[in-house]
Automatic annotation (TrEMBL):
Tree of life domain: Eukaryota
UniProt membrane topology term: Multi-pass membrane protein
Pfam families tied to this protein: Vma12 (PF11712)
InterPro entries: ATPase_Vma12
Keyword Transmembrane: yes
Main location per the UniProt record: endoplasmic reticulum
Organism annotation: Denticeps clupeoides (denticle herring)
The protein's name in its UniProt record: Transmembrane protein 199
Entry GO terms, CC: endoplasmic reticulum membrane
Gene: TMEM199
Keyword Membrane attributed: yes
Subcellular location: Endoplasmic reticulum membrane
Length: 198
């Protein structure tokens, strides 16, 4: 909050003229004004001294008014220095900031699996994938063996019914196709059950 003026050169010159010629200035006011005249480049005139000077100018009947003297002056606003912060409050704020940062971190990372050792998954996941591939390979191998065995049995068994090789091969292909389709049906139903579908 402003409580003084920063006076300029014009104020100093007119103040010198005022002090040199004219009625006697009261001793305490004269002392304050001389300290202003002898001051440095940025001289401060307090509101209290300005009021005394105004009262003197009115009482002495000078033609010069205070606002004319202060024409090139400005309000002096001291630099604001914030009060020191309460250490308990600072510690509490830091604690709250840390808590909020932890909550934000937890919110961001809540869907991250901490057990993963790489982007490919854990070793347990790798074992599960190997078992899944192994089961698929065994299923395909089982399917092929069943179809080939059915073909062989039908081909060898049909020699008692058919004498022609073409008829024997055709009957073996039909038998292998029927068994293969039945095996595929069972395989699909099993896979649907593994996936949780009815």
């Amino acid at each position: 909050m402003a409580s003084s003026f920063a006076v300029g050169n014009k104020f100093r010159e007119r103040l010198r003229e005022l002090l040199d010629g004219g009625p006697a200035v009261p001793h305490d006011l004269q002392k304050e004004l001389h300290s202003i005249l002898n001051g440095d480049a940025e001289t401060i005139l307090s509101f209290k001294t300005a009021r005394k000077l105004k009262t003197y100018l009115q009482a002495a009947g000078h033609e010069v008014h205070l606002h004319e003297l202060l024409d090139d002056s400005t309000l002096f606003l001291p630099k604001y220095e914030p009060p020191p912060r309460n250490p308990e409050l600072v510690a509490r704020l830091e604690k709250i900031k840390a808590k909020l940062a932890n909550e934000e971190y937890d919110r961001i990372t809540r869907n991250v699996n901490t057990q993963e050792i790489s982007r490919h998954g854990t070793l347990a996941g790798f074992g599960k994938q190997v078992r899944s591939v192994k089961a698929a390979v065994v299923t395909v191998f089982n399917f092929l063996v069943t179809v080939v065995a059915t073909f062989a049995c039908a081909y060898l068994g049909s020699q008692y019914v058919f004498t022609d090789t073409t008829a024997r091969v055709l009957s073996a292909v039909i038998a292998a196709s029927v068994v293969g389709l039945a095996e595929l049906y069972v395989l699909v139903r099993t896979m649907e059950g593994d996936l949780g579908e009815p």
